Amino acid sequence: MKDRVDRVKDDSSDLRQAVDGAKDKASATVHKANAEAHEVKARASDDLGTKVSETVKAGVDHAKSAIDDAKGNAKLEDSKR
């Protein structure tokens, strides 16, 4: 009877260790996934910021070019008069 009780205790201890190990591994996996998600989010934010900056710069350049063209057309009209 005592042997059986000792085996159950050993089995119980082994199971607790296995569960603790699984919890630790799951926690590490979640931590790693969160870190990777944060990194992806940061890269996406940087990429978006770069694309927005490039788009705004292109829009400003286009507007400047249109203003210069309008000034040139105005000068041409003035010279025809």
Question: Key features?
Answer:
0% strand; 81 residues; mainly alpha; 98% helix
Structure write-up:
This protein has one helix at about 1-80. With about 80 residues, it is an all-alpha fold.
Q: What can be said about this structure in brief?
A:
The chain has 81 residues and is mainly alpha-helical. 98% of the residues lie in helices and 0% in strands.
Pick out the low-confidence regions: none
Largest pleated sheet: none
Tell me how many strands there are.
0
Number of helices, counting only DSSP H or I runs of 4 residues or more: 1
Would you list the SSEs in sequence order as H and E? H
Secondary structure: helix percent? over 70%
Task: Tell me what portion of residues adopts beta-strand conformation.
Answer: under 5%
How would you sum up the global shape?
rod-shaped
Instruction: Determine Rg (CA atoms, Å).
Output: 35 Å
Kindly, what is the distance between the CA atoms of the first and last residues, rounded to a whole number of angstroms? 119 Å
Give the assembly state of these chains: single chain
What class do helices, strands and sheet pairing give? mainly alpha
Helix and strand topology:
Layout: H1 2-80
